[in-house]
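Form 7-S
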Amino acid sequence: MTNPPTTETDDVRQALAAAPPDLTPYIDGDHVPSRSSEELASVNPATETTLWHLPAGHPEDVDAAVASALGAFHDTHWAHDRDLRVSCLLELATLIEDYADRIALLDTLEIGIPIDVTRADVALATAFIRDTVAMLPAVDDDVFAPARRVPRGVIAVVAPWNFPFFVALTKTVPCLAVGNTVVLKPSELASASANLLAELATQAGVPDGVLNVVVGLGNVVGDALVRHRDIGQVNLTGSVTTGRAVLAGAAAGGLAPVLTELGGKSAHVVGEHAPDLDVVADAVAADIFWCAGQVCSSGSRLIVHERHHDELVDLLVSRVASWTPGDPTGTGVQAGPLGSEQHLRRVEVMVDAASSAGARIVTGGAPGPRPGFYYPPTIVIDVEPDLELFTEEVFGPVLAVTRCTSTAHGIELANATSYGLVATGWSTDDAEIDRLADCLRAAWVTVNPHLDPPSDPRAGAESVGWSGSGVEGGLPTLRAATRMSVVAVGRPD
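Output:
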């Protein structure tokens, strides 16, 4: 492996060895014993060694956490005191900066995301908190008396394993900012940084019970949480399979509204009038191979006009040559492991199935040496639209390449999926640019992203199909964590 860990990382690792994270439920401002006697092992995907153990979780843990959150919602000033919420959240951002190295290493050890990425995530997380606080005064701008926006109460946040701290925070903070309380259920594959988030929230002055964390299995803790009748909303980031289970559980329980951000099968569409192919190759390679493709928005499909196909594929193969695996705790590493052995096997099966069906692997295509769940950057060409590699999320460093004969054909292929999270178009022709922008079906559509199109932090987007439901981003996210209420107050003479 290349790039040995830095001294700073080694120092934090030694501290973790001396004091492993406490993964018992965090309820009412402190850790409490789990009602479950069963334990799960947290496995380092780069070394296949056990890091620490965590409780499997119990429905009674969920009951206690929800009761604590409900009590905090009614019995503290949190829901009604914006100044308190602003002060606590800004202090939380400062504390996260103080604990940045520990947070980054926890995520890297549990999931294998390169340390450079997890450190950047922590910086983005603190910026997110401050941006969220800055937007709070505008939450009610679209409301007219006698209507008002009020917090929903207790919100269940179900976070994924691939970006444990960042997603848990970006799902939780908007809920807290508008006055809700939260029960957070992190993935059993990566729970440590979520617990640390709750501990830091308490240090920041967030009242006891406002943020609670229960770790454990999804079919135990997650199911009990989304079915709980005191939950005011469920906010999930996860797979389509998990999304279906959560929607069914919520429907069978308290009928809480559910916001979901699920999978993606995002496409890059390179039109006939393509820009500089070196620029396109850099962007496509970074999009799919960053974090080993374990990103729901990864551009896992390349639909390229036939006149550019061979040249662009050659350029991409040349880019892959520099993506070498390494110890994710070392700086400068681009290719870390996949998150689990189960996931490694899934990626391998999907690539093998495409190859058996006639698609051609031009680079990669086989797991790396053990230990570690490494899978190399892989490019598969001649992927027909009826193959699973074209239609289903791989969640790995695998690019499926398909030819198109025209821009219209490319758009048709890009939209030929049940997902609709992100789509990217490439062209220098104005008419072609407009067609890509208008016709690609996704929540986030970008044409020529290397030109850095302007964005507005107030903007939000709705996913399409299997990619989820509800609005993500900016003010819409804050507003979604509230409900509309009409309050009419009569005053006697």
